[in-house]
Amino acid sequence: MPPDPRLPESGLPEMARPETLRPESLKAAIAGSEAMLYARGGQVCLSSRGRALPGLAGASVLLRTHSQLAAALGLIALDGVARRIVIAPPDVKAGHLASVIARADVEAVMGEDESLAIEGARFVPLDLSAVALAEGPQVVTEWVLFTSGTTGEPKMVAHTLAGLTGAIQPAAAADITWGTFYDIRRYGGLQILLRALLGHASLVLSDADEDVAGFLARLGRCGVTHLTGTPSHWRRALMSPANAAIAPHYVRLSGEIADQAILDSLKARFPDAAIGHAYASTEAGVGFEVTDGLEGFPASFIGRPGAVEMKVEDGRLHLRSARTASAYVGGGPDLRNDGWVDTGDVIEQRGGRFHFMGRAGGIINVGGLKINPEEVEAVINRQPGVRASRVSGRKSPITGAIVVAEVVLTEAANDNATFKEAILAACRENLPAFKVPAMLRFVPSLALTAAGKLSRNA
């Protein structure tokens, strides 16, 4: 298949183009477009909007909505008007909202109805028929996002629109319809919203109570061409017969390690699609995308000059670019060291390629020997009949912990005893003995976090 002109060259980091690096504002960038947002209840054409939302100029606003559609329209209305938009994810705990308001100096809360109001800030209703696209006084709005995977008080990081859009390239082809399994109120989903809006494309939004099969069917009806999600999202999609409804031109993975098994499975299911896996985080921003069909990334990325600089220290990946967040909001650890962000992701070089091993904080300690769960999962996931796996540590009075694996099989794999022995044999062949699971059991599914990642605490 010839290279897709809409994608970066295989194996090379995305480079920001000047015309998309610093849009004046989101409203200015999409004004006059025919971009569409498709929600389950209907669709919204952005070029039809024109009235402004009053009284929020220069304010710090918490955007707290029931739906993704309302969140998208609220972002468009507020950017360039509010000095700060704090984007509340759907799973933010009510008990943390008072702290969020205090730490982010929130003056107003915007949402569809007063059930979203919070004591300590005035409530502004979001009129879905009144999204501001008109010209007017502009400010550089700070976009505040919650990090995923945190416990206790949520951490918030500040971005600019320029940084959030730094990796976005203008599309060379028309009639693009994006879809995403992500929620746009988190970093990964927000990236896709911005790609769709700045490319004057369309975006199909998921609904909170919509199951995978229903969303896949709707993506097919809307003619999705570009579809994104975490590897865990994609494993669930591949398990659903409803994936027969879609035939995307471009499949993108991010948010978790994309191992060879999921890349190969997607290529087998969508042989005509360009498949890429991107590296990004809420703090570090978008780092790079790899489109050569292989897990990991070329070693030549490290130390290479460009829009994104990368280095390895103590086995961990560090990034430096204009796309990274500026700081934690309301206090927190120093995000940058001379501009460098420690991603916390452990990588290992094998020949001419670096491979992601897992999070530095997720290591299992077995008798003083360290194990990255993702390394064991990658071996298990490669075995025929396996759709997904989760490896964790279970307390042991002798070694401190033992390695435990939970495995989801495909429908075709129904002889559990045979598959269990085959999986363990593959682990013994490819891993040191201390990394081989001491216990393995089959489960019908694995829980995901609100961000679509494999839940490590389930």
Describe the model:
The chain has helices at 18-21, 26-30, 68-78, 97-103, 161-164, 187-198, 212-221, 231-239, 260-269, 373-381, 416-430, and strands spanning 36-39, 42-45, 60-63, 84-87, 108-111, 122-125, 142-146, 156-160, 177-180, 202-204, 226-229, 250-253, 274-281, 285-290, 297-298, 308-313, 316-321, 327-328, 341-350, 353-359, 364-366, 369-371, 386-396, 400-409, 439-442. With 458 residues, the protein is α/β, with parallel strands linked by helices. It has two domains: 18-347, ANL, N-terminal domain (Rossmann fold); 363-442, GMP Synthetase, Chain A, domain 3 (2-Layer Sandwich). The strands form five sheets. Strands 2-1-10-9-11-12-13-14 form an eight-stranded mixed beta sheet, sandwiched between helices. It has a seven-stranded mixed beta sheet with strand order 6-5-3-4-7-8-18. Helix 9 links the parallel strand 12 (250-253) and strand 13. Helix 8 packs across helix 9. The longest helix is centred in the last third of the chain and has 15 residues, at 416-430. Mean pLDDT is 85; it is low at 1-22.
